[in-house]
Amino acid sequence: MTGIDRSRLPDTGVTIFTRMSALAQQTGAINLSQGFPDFSVDPLLIDRVLVHMREGRNQYAPMQGVPLLRERIAEKVERLYGRRYDPNTEITVTSGATEAVFCAITACLQPADQAIVIEPAYDAYIPAITLSHAVAVPSPMRFPGYRIDWDHVRDSICEKTRLIILNSPHNPTGTILDRSDIDALRQIVADTRILIVSDEVYEHIVLDGRMHESMCRYPDLAERSFVISSFGKTYHATGWKIGYCLAPEALSAEFQKIHQFVTFSSNTPVQYALADMLEKPSAYLELGNFYQRKRDFFRSRIADSRFIPLPCEGTYFQMLDYSRISDEPDTDFAVRMTREFGVAAIPPSVFHSDRQDHRVLRFCFAKNEHTLEEAAARLCRI
Description:
Elements: H1 16-27, E1 30-31, H2 43-54, H3 67-81, E2 91-94, H4 97-108, E3 114-119, H5 125-131, E4 135-140, H6 150-156, E5 161-167, H7 179-189, E6 195-199, H8 219-222, E7 225-230, H9 231-234, E8 243-246, H10 249-259, H11 268-277, H12 282-285, H13 287-301, E9 308-309, E10 317-321, H14 330-341, E11 343-344, E12 360-364, H15 369-380
Parallel strand pairs: 1-11, 3-4, 3-5, 5-6, 6-7
Antiparallel strand pairs: 2-8, 7-8, 9-10, 10-12
């Protein structure tokens, strides 16, 4: 039997999302692990997809994305953040945000370059760095507040540093960047050749009246940034895999060199339907309040449990401290909780290069109230 002599990702196996979702299915547990809603997509969006399919928009879209969708994205970003991106040269529609992350990272990095990764980090970042023959330099957040340690970031920079990867609102912790973070970042990258990949897929899920600090807001940061977002998170359609990347023309040109050989183009009728939906800003402007109600509902139902909720400023994830219940490693406790109590969650130590374990788990509250009610009842029995 012929095989591959040497793996390009020797330390990478099946993702934790796949493993925990499979365990939830196997055991019949409520799946609060993988981040996807269990409620319906807006019927209007479904209708618009059908309209465009029936009207014959079923062939390849342009490599950069449907022009109308790119124009609507440009209008939205300018309305929200005050920066106008040229839809012809500075916006690329991708097959999900993960594809955009991969294309941005590989466009930036040459062999032996270094990329600073804020940890815990979404698990798509480091493999893309590794495949570029570059070096990931972890910079851990400060627990329990999960704030970026900018002194550590600054100390990690050297002449080989080419990239900083940011994620706000942050998965898995639910924290967001604030103005002090932006000030620190601007000071660090000033007068350097460092680029930024800013994963902002939860940009519209910012809670408690806070403001999303996009790289787009700041000209000095925007000129060195790939800003990535996702329609799947905004319109509750994670399985459709449509995202996009904003970047200045020179950076977008390099991004598209990669993109054209990864997916070339993305689902055409869905792109047209999303362009239609962007004519209704209320759909994304009200998203924070929608998910804030779900977060508050979930937290109210686990108030009598032994779990301790950590602050959740954005995303649809709630971190729960289980240290009053067990001192088991989070990977072991997550499996036992799924098997014995019927609720699946994500152990965030897997998002640390050194498997740092704070005895917390990540729970997705993008669920119907009856799902959250039943999951909370089970958690209260632990």
